[in-house]
Amino acid sequence: MDTIYLDHAATTPVHPEVVEAMLPYWTGSFGNASSTHSAGRGAKLALNDARDRIASFIGSSSSELIFTSGGTESDNLALFGAAEAGRSRGSHIVTTRVEHHAVLHACERLSRLGFEVTYVPVDEYGQVSLVDVQEAVRPDTILISVMHGNNEVGTLQPIEEIGCFARDRGIVFHVDAVQTLAYEPLRLSELPVDLMSFSAHKLYGPKGIGALYIARNTRFIPQGYGGSQERKRRPGTENVPAIAGFAKAVELFDRNRYEYREKVERLRSKLVHELERRLGKEAFLLNGHPCERLPHILNISFPGISTETMLMNLDLAGVAAASGSACTSGSLEVSHVLRAMGLSEERAGSAIRFSFGAGNDEDQMIRTAEIIETVAARLRNKI
Ligand SMILES: Cc1ncc(COP(=O)(O)O)c(C=O)c1O
């Protein structure tokens, strides 16, 4: 049975051209980028070239981009680095209730270290409003962290408006753009954002490599100690093969971004239409913003069928989907994002996230809808 993989928001397969681009740096050009001999210089060259290409993709200068081990580290580094650097000015941080745990758990730790964190609410679509952010800000606010696109429901946040406000008030602004890098064109030199997190494995790059954009003159204190790599902002020998792979992944998107976006949007619509046709519109509910959203994420509740049961049945039938929820001691907790959106227990407890990618096609969408129809008929008849 071929698996229908509909979990691209969790991770994507590594593109063959990305694998190809990484190969030379495992054995042949394996030097340490800090070494002064020719092997080291070769690695350094690859490192600089990758940084230039990724910086150009996001519209920043190369010196504003540092490599990390992924989105989680970038979020942590951004929050702890900006919080420590801002401490003499104040100790208040503003974020939202729908951030990834890499931000929320970092904020919990910062609270234990004496910072005060305000969690701004979201509306029923998972969107935060500028007014709520403005109301949360105080004279001692030093940092605002708001994600670009939500990983569970795909809702986009008004980062430009929030960024303009933050800049006016002299508050450092961090954005988690892990889910959006592939989809939303960025010109960071023109965006009022000070820190932005990225990860390679969401766009067909390798896992364990990411980047943090740190705008020039941002108040930031490095959080690791060691060598002087990454302009002393993130010590440790650079993972050159993964970095070369990250740059290749970005380059592939640079060439095909619009076709790709259209493709995943088409697949998303196809699955919705097939479900409407087979189950009827009243049999499921779409979660997230209807238009201000990422194209590859579709979050649907099937009332009467718990997330766990649906996921298990889909898995047995060869469909890999996800819930946004964390699995604790074998059972799923209701997602903090759906809870923050104020969805009923029943709706939040029956939500499934499908996320689409390059390997999917319309036949798979038809097959998935067919499987859901069978599963739903079986389970609902039992109730
Ligand atoms: C919005 C968001 N932020 C951060 C992360 C963490 O990224 P990584 O898996 O590279 O640590 C993810 C991963 O799912 C994410 O979706």
Strand line-up of the largest beta sheet: 2-8-7-6-5-3-4
Question: How many angstroms does the end-to-end distance come to?
Answer: 29 Å
CATH hierarchy: architecture of the largest domain? 3-Layer(aba) Sandwich
Tell me, rounded to a whole number, the average pLDDT. Answer: 95
Helix content: 40-55%
CATH topology of the largest domain: Aspartate Aminotransferase, domain 2
What are the bound molecules? pyridoxal-5'-phosphate
Total individual domains: 2
CATH class of the largest domain: Alpha Beta
The number of helices is 12
Description:
With 383 residues, this protein is of the alpha/beta class. The strands form four sheets. Strands 2-8-7-6-5-3-4 form a seven-stranded mixed beta sheet, sandwiched between helices. It has a three-stranded antiparallel beta sheet with strand order 9-10-14. Strands 1-11 form a two-stranded parallel sheet. Helix 2 runs parallel beside helix 8 and helix 3 runs parallel beside helix 4. Bound molecules: pyridoxal-5'-phosphate (PLP). Pyridoxal-5'-phosphate (PLP) binds next to helix 3. The site of pyridoxal-5'-phosphate (PLP) has 14 residues, from helix 3.
